Amino acid sequence: MSSRPPNLTFKLVLLGDGRVGKTSLVLRYVNNSFSEKQQATVQASYLTKRLVIEGVPITLSIWDTAGQERFHALAALLVYDITDNDTFVRVRKWVKELQQMASKNIIMTIAANKSDLVRSKKFDIQEAESYAAAIGSKLFLTSAKSGTGVEEAFLDIATRLLQNKKNSVEGLSPAPPRKGIVIVDEPEKEPPPKCCS
Predict the structure, then answer these.
(1) What is the number of other CB atoms lying within 10 angstroms of the CB of residue 9?
(2) CA dihedral angle for residue 138, residue 184, residue 9, residue 150, rounded to 10 degrees
(3) Residues 155 and 77: beta-carbon distance below 8 Å
(4) CB 140 within 8 A of CB 157
(5) Any keyword Acyltransferase (predicted)?
(6) Distance (Å, rounded) from C-alpha 174 to C-alpha 192?
(7) Where along the chain do its domains lie?
(8) Contact by Cβ (8 Å): 173, 181
(9) For residue 119, what is the DSSP state?
(10) Is 120 within 8 Å of 90 (Cβ atoms)?
(11) Which helix (H) or strand (E) segment is 13 a member of?
(12) Cβ proximity of 4 and 68 under 8 Å
């Protein structure tokens, strides 16, 4: 009797400026849906997606943090709006933060989102491709609206997470430390109320 491989759960966090389409990407991937009137994310939320890669059942816990809470993750999908270069500049800042506080085994993938808004197929993504390669990442052109590249980006992350897990279990490389991505943006604490006697 053959034993089934255990279900692996991996946490993935989405990072990027507001209005770049993080929530829309997750909804496209998990529910295959898109809304033109997607509200800005105001509180942290997560969705899960179950899939099987190389015969191994995997659950991706995908966190859209809204920059409010503290979360641990093994991978980050860094999202920017391909029509707004300032959002790509912010991705570079996120990468620097992740490199300082996460282990070297953290998976980072960059999504150049809203590719459906670019009229010409001749837009320049060479800088983003070069940057992704330089940090050991991959760049995916995505469109939450049309679905282009969305499945591929998430599947690439899941596949690399599985490979890292296999390598650490099989001793092919040292096990990564139990250190993940920690996003901290806690609200200021209010002073305790003064009590009268």
Answers:
(1) 13
(2) -40
(3) no
(4) no
(5) no
(6) 47
(7) 8-182
(8) no
(9) S
(10) no
(11) strand 8-15
(12) no
Instruction: Burial-class residue 4 by CB neighbours within 10 Å (0-12, 13-18, 19+).
Output: exposed
Token reading at 95: 């990468």
pTM over 0.85: no
pLDDT of 150-173, one tens digit each?
Answer: 999 999 999 999 999 998 876 434
Structure-block tokens of residue 192? 């305790």
Q: How many residues does the chain have?
A: 197
How far is 181 from 188, CA to CA, in rounded Å?
21
Type of residue at 183: I
Q: Are 19 and 1 in contact (CB under 8 A)?
A: no
Measured CA to CA, the distance from residue 94 to residue 16 in angstroms comes to 8
**CATH code given to domain 8-182:** 3.40.50.300
Per-residue pLDDT tens digits for 29-47 = 999 999 877 565 544 578 9
- How far the first Cα of the chain sits from its last, in Å, is 73
Distance CA 81, CA 60 (A): 24
